[in-house]
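dumping this here so i dont lose it
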């Protein structure tokens, strides 16, 4: 009987894993491929070079200096010329103060959902700041010019920060204010130091720093790179997050963020020689194109379901063979929108981190790709285990038009040879 239930459970799991995905929502997104391809091709070296040169010509521009104010006003004027809604965002922190600049392109169907591309416009006091971060500023301005001629489902914000070189002060205050105001920032792309490359290897790779919760943004970048590789020509090197630029300010307040950085360290970083003649405009063009494609894809994703509309339930607390542990995902907005979810269910030993194993060396680790209407259930038959403490982790992540959705619950329990005890999830 034990073998029979196990076989049924495993067979059901395999069937669910092999079900074809419903790509109707993705097809709708991919219908805009030609439009995105056209936008990507409008990102060009000459425009990028013009912005970098202008920023460099102001000389070193640390936060609080007159040169920094001149760079700030130049950025404001450029964004204003694109018919965007533009504002100065004043900030102060521990005796320091400055202004961020924000240009906004209102979304047509989900205006409250926001995606952001950002860079910092201040430099260290000895540097003209061509690569750090004139490269990022030039990319944001060029991306904004192209995207301002199109419409997107979500609101797109083009944000330039000051105070980065003093500890991400401008972005910290910006993210804090957004959090306190309850703004729905779906994802952030930070561009900081993206214009230096000497060798062919340098010029063909870009680093993408991202944490686990924000990996969906990196997934989109990989997708864009696959779809439009002929216009981009980069290999994306995905790396664990490091808190070294403005993306970290958003992560600190629970928002998802991704950070692009040149593949090799610029030897002129934070020196008086951080100048345009040492930069590679062709490389800057490639990274800017990748960033814009990622941003456009994020901005065009369209969904009504939010993480708050999803409920994860675990049924059963003390389980004895042949009782079942049931995992249920509920979508409270199913009458308006089906949620496209990747569902992960696993049990791990608390002390070793290894997956719990049942009879026949069966690993307690399941992943499903599902369109969830009102609810979805997965039943796990209670089997015999060795004595151990475990964590039960259940998470859902959106894909296709629900990209960016994430919800997770954890609970704990003990396995015995003939039954399991699970702490109830409140």
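and the seq i came up w/
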């Amino acid at each position: 009987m034990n073998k029979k239930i196990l076989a049924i459970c495993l067979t059901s799991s395999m069937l669910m894993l092999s079900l074809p995905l419903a790509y109707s929502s993705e097809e709708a997104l991919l219908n805009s491929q030609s439009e995105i391809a056209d936008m990507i091709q409008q990102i060009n070296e000459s425009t990028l070079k013009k912005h970098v040169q202008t920023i460099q010509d102001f000389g070193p521009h640390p936060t609080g200096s007159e040169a920094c104010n001149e760079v700030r006003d130049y950025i404001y004027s450029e964004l204003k010329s694109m018919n965007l809604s533009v504002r100065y965002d004043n900030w102060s922190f521990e005796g320091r103060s400055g202004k961020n600049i924000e240009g906004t392109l209102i979304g047509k169907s989900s205006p409250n959902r926001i995606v952001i591309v950002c860079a910092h416009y201040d430099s260290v006091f000895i540097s003209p700041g061509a690569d750090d971060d004139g490269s990022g500023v030039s990319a944001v301005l060029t991306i904004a010019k192209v995207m301002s001629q199109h419409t997107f489902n979500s609101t797109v914000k083009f944000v330039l920060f000051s105070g980065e070189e003093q500890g991400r002060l401008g972005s910290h205050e910006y993210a804090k204010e957004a959090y306190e105001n309850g703004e729905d920032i779906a994802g952030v792309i930070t561009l900081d130091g993206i214009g230096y490359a000497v060798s062919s290897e340098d010029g063909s790779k870009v680093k993408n720093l991202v944490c686990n919760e924000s990996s969906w943004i990196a997934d989109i970048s990989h997708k864009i790179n696959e779809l439009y590789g002929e216009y981009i020509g980069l290999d994306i090197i995905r790396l664990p997050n490091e808190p070294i630029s403005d993306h970290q300010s958003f992560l600190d307040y629970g928002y998802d963020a991704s950070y692009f950085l040149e593949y090799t360290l610029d030897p002129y970083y934070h020196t008086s020689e951080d100048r345009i003649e040492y930069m590679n405009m062709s490389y800057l063009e490639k990274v800017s194109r990748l960033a814009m494609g990622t941003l456009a894809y994020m901005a065009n994703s369209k969904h009504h379901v939010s993480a708050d509309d999803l409920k994860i339930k675990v049924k059963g607390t003390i389980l004895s063979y042949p009782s079942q542990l049931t995992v249920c995902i509920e979508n409270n907005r199913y009458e308006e929108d089906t949620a496209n979810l990747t569902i992960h269910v696993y049990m791990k030993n608390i002390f070793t981190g290894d997956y719990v194993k049942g009879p026949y060396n069966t690993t307690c680790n399941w992943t499903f790709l599902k369109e969830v209407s009102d609810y979805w259930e997965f039943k796990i038959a209670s089997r015999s285990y060795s004595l151990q403490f475990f964590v039960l982790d259940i998470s859902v992540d959106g894909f296709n038009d629900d990209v960016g959705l994430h919800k997770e619950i954890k609970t704990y329990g003990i396995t015995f040879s003939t039954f399991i005890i699970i702490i109830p999830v409140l």
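Residues 2-22+305-422 form a domain with the Immunoglobulin-like fold (CATH 2.60.40.2550).
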